[in-house]
Amino acid sequence: MELWVDTKPRCGPSAMAIDEWLLETRTVPMLRIYRWDGHWASFGYFGKLDAAKDGVVGVNWVRRWTGGGVVDHRGDWTYSLIVPRSCEVATMKGGESYRAIHQLLLEVLRAEGDDLGLAEVSGRAGGMCFENPVEHDVLDAAGAKMAGAAQRRTKAGLLHQGSVAKAADSHLRGELFAESLSESWWEEDIFVDEERVEELMAAKYGKKEWLERR
After folding, report:
1. DSSP assignment, residue 128?
2. What does the alpha-carbon distance between residue 197 and residue 14 come to, in Å, rounded to a whole number?
3. Domains of the chain, first to last
4. What is the pLDDT along the chain (214 residues), one digit of tens a residue?
5. Where are the alpha helices (DSSP H) in 56-137?
6. Which DSSP symbol is given to 70?
7. Do residues 154 and 139 touch, judged by C-beta distance below 8 A?
8. Whether 60 contacts 39, CB under 8 Å
9. DSSP H stretches of helix in 26-168
10. With b meaning 16 or more CB within 10 Å and e meaning fewer, what string describes 161-199?
11. For the purposes of burial, counting CB atoms within 10 Å of the CB of 70, is it exposed (0-12), middle (13-18) or buried (19 or more)?
12. In whole angstroms, what separates CA 58 from the centre of its chain?
């Protein structure tokens, strides 16, 4: 597995376009940790911008290619898993892969000293992601959601976009997570295909029509 701690802060459309580009091109699994350039929130592919705006103010918006609800990225720890189709987890059913990944993330977060567990039942779908846990989300002892994610499957593989409410040292948590996800991992400094990323931003993530689609 490759670990990429992307130290360059990204705007929302760029962050989403890079994930899609990675899914198109990676031949081995990758864990990407990244930061946001400014105040951003994201919402899922099936969401509505107007509804998202009711829950969060003072942010820029981007629509994800994955599903799920609204995520305020101010102060979170954001990661993506890019898993080629040749890997077993990419062929699992959605609930199975979601649980498998979050079970490993749970152990990493527990090692930081938090009393956490996985949600056994889902709350109300959509809306504010961290106010509405779904099955296999990471919860604290009081039942508050600490980590959630959304997925997208294509012929190329699985894209799993996740957020942890509690920020941490990107390298340390990233290394521990990579170690739990794979028996063998190494850190890479990725050379981004900016031309392809710009194409995806122009065609999708940076377009008003994409943001406001119904």
Report:
1. B
2. 7
3. 2-211 (3.30.930.10)
4. 999 999 999 999 999 999 999 999 999 999 999 999 999 999 999 999 999 999 899 999 999 999 999 999 999 999 999 999 999 999 999 899 999 999 999 999 999 998 999 998 765 555 555 566 888 999 999 999 999 999 999 999 999 999 999 989 989 999 999 999 999 999 999 999 999 999 999 999 999 999 998 7
5. 88-91, 94-110
6. B
7. no
8. yes
9. 49-55, 88-91, 94-110
10. bbbbbeeeebeebbbbbbebbbeebeeeebebeeeebee
11. buried
12. 21
What is the C-alpha separation between 192 and 189, in angstroms, rounded? 9
**How far apart, in whole angstroms, are the C-alpha atoms of residue 40 and residue 47?**
16
Q: Are 105 and 177 in contact (CB under 8 A)?
A: yes
Q: Are 117 and 34 in contact (CB under 8 A)?
A: no
Total residues belonging to the chain: 214
Q: Contact 41/72 with Cβ under 8 angstroms? A: yes
134-142 LR contacts (CB < 8 Å, sep 24+): 135/95, 135/98, 135/99, 136/95, 136/98, 136/99, 136/102, 136/103, 137/102, 138/102, 138/105, 138/106, 138/109, 138/164, 140/114, 140/115, 140/116, 141/115, 141/116, 141/117
Residue 5, token pair as written in the block: 């701690």
Among 98, 79, 64, which residue's Cα sits nearest to residue 30?
79
Entry pTM: 0.93
Cα(162)–Cα(177) distance, integer angstroms: 12
The torsion angle over the Cα atoms of residues 21, 23, 25 and 28, rounded to 10 degrees, is: 140
